[in-house]
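Researcher: Sequence recovery benchmark, item below. Answer with residues only.
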C-alpha cells in the first residue's frame, strides 16, 4: 500500500475510527478528516500501535523496472572452503581491481563479468547470517552457492544449508570445491546430492554443478558464469526510481564516523541526504560510499553501499525505509522501539508460561 485513509485503516484493523484517531493524536498528528489519506509512515505507526502487521509496497505504476544484478550468498559445511571461495572471488571483484588488490572488509562485493553483467556477493558466509536475515524478513539473497568439499562429501551443514535455501525458496548452484585434492571425488558428491533430492542439471534437473578449487583458483569463471545463467533464468528486475527499499547486511561502530551500515538496495534509489528509518534506528544519510569507498550520491538495486549518518547501530537484516522528514524518522523509530520492547516482553512472559527445554 502507499497510504490509506483513517476510515479505511480503522475498517481493516477492526478498530473504531476514534481509537485510531486517538493513536494519531498521541503521536502528535492532527487529523483534519477521517477521509484524508494518511502517509505510509503514519499508517505503519498506527498499525504498530494497534498490533497490525503491515508491509510497505511502492506502486511500480509508470516506474521503470530494469534488470538488476543477482545477490549471492555462499553456504556449506564448515571447512569446505566458504571463506576461501569468497576470498578468491573477492580478488576478482571490481573493488580489488580498482584499489589494486587492497580491499577493506565491507560486507559485500561486486564481480563484473566480461559481458558487462555483474554479480553481488554477500561477504558473510554461514547459515546463522542467512537465517537471521530471513527471520527479520530480509529476502536479500537471490541465489545460494552451496559449497561441498570433493574429498569430504555431503555433511550435516550441507543438508542444513540445502534446507535453508529451500525454505527461503532460493535456488542453489553447487560448487564442488577442493577438486585439486588427491582424495577428490566429485562424482560421489553428485550422487550424494541427488540422493538428497537435489535435481542436478546433468541428471535432467535444473541445479547447476561446477567443479572448483578455491585455493588453486580454478573453475571460478565457470562458477561466475553458472551464477549469471541462473540469474538470467530468474529474470531479476527491480524498480529503479522512487524511494529506496534496502536491507542492512552488516553494521559496525566507527570511532570517528559513528554507526556505519553496509546495505543493499532492493528497489528504488537511495540518495544521500535522505532521512531513513533502519530497523528501529533512524538517521539522515550523511554519506553513501560504494564498495571502493568512493563517495556517491545515489545507490540503485543490488549495489552494495556503506551508509553513514545513523543515530544508532542497526542489525543485519534490518530494513531501510526512506521517510519524508526528521520528525517522521524520529516518530517511526520511536514507534518501532516501543513495538520491539512490547514484543520482547510478550516473548518473555510466554517463555515463563511455557518453559522451553534448553538445547543440549
Ligand atoms: P570454511 O570453514 O567453509 O570457511 O572453510 P575455509 O575456507 O576456512 O577452508 C578450510 C580449509 O580448507 C582451509 O585450510 C583451506 O585452505 C582449505 N581449502 C579451501 N578450499 C580449498 C581448495 O580448493 N583446495 C584445497 N586443497 N584446500 C582448500
Ligand atoms: Mg569460514
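Model:
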Amino acid at each position: 500500500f502507499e497510504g490509506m485513509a483513517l476510515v479505511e485503516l480503522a475498517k481493516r484493523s477492526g478498530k473504531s475510527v476514534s481509537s485510531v484517531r486517538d493513536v494519531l493524536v498521541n503521536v502528535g498528528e492532527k487529523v483534519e478528516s477521517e477521509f484524508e489519506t494518511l502517509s505510509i509512515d503514519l499508517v505503519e505507526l498506527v498499525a504498530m500501535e494497534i498490533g497490525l502487521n503491515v508491509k510497505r509496497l511502492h506502486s511500480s505504476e509508470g516506474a521503470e523496472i530494469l534488470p538488476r544484478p543477482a545477490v549471492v550468498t555462499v553456504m556449506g559445511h564448515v571447512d569446505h572452503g566458504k571463506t576461501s571461495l569468497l576470498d578468491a572471488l573477492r580478488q576478482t571483484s571490481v573493488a580489488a581491481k580498482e584499489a589494486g588488490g587492497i580491499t577493506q572488509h565491507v560486507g559485500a562485493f561486486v564481480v563484473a563479468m566480461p559481458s558487462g553483467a555483474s554479480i553481488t556477493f554477500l561477504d558473510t558466509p554461514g547459515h546463522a547470517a542467512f537465517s537471521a536475515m530471513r527471520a527479520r524478513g530480509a529476502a536479500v539473497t537471490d541465489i545460494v552457492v552451496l559449497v561441498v568439499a570433493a574429498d569430504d562429501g555431503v555433511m550435516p551443514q550441507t543438508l542444513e544449508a540445502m534446507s535453508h535455501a529451500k525454505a527461503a525458496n532460493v535456488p542453489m548452484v553447487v560448487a564442488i570445491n577442493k577438486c585439486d585434492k588427491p582424495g577428490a571425488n566429485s562424482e560421489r558428491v553428485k550422487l550424494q546430492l541427488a540422493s538428497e533430492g537435489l535435481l542436478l542439471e546433468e541428471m535432467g534437473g535444473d541445479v547447476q554443478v561446477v567443479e572448483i578449487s578455491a585455493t588453486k583458483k580454478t573453475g571460478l569463471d565457470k562458477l561466475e558464469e553458472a551464477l549469471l545463467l541462473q540469474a538470467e533464468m530468474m529474470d531479476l528486475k527491480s524498480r529503479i526510481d522512487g524511494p529506496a527499499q534496502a536491507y542492512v547486511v552488516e553494521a559496525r561502530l566507527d570511532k570517528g564516523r559513528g554507526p556505519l551500515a553496509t546495505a543493499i538496495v532492493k528497489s528504488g534509489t537511495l540518495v544521500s541526504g535522505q532521512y531513513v528509518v533502519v530497523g528501529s534506528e533512524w538517521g539522515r544519510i550523511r554519506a553513501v560510499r560504494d564498495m571502493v569507498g568512493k563517495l556517491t550520491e545515489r545507490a540503485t538495486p543490488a549495489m552494495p553501499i556503506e551508509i553513514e549518518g545513523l543515530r544508532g547501530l542497526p542489525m543485519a537484516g534490518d530494513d531501510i525505509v526512506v521517510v519524508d522528514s526528521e520528525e517522521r524518522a524520529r516518530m517511526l523509530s520511536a514507534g518501532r522501539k516501543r513495538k520491539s520492547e512490547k514484543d520482547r516482553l510478550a516473548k518473555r512472559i510466554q517463555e515463563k508460561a511455557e518453559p522451553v527445554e534448553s538445547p543440549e
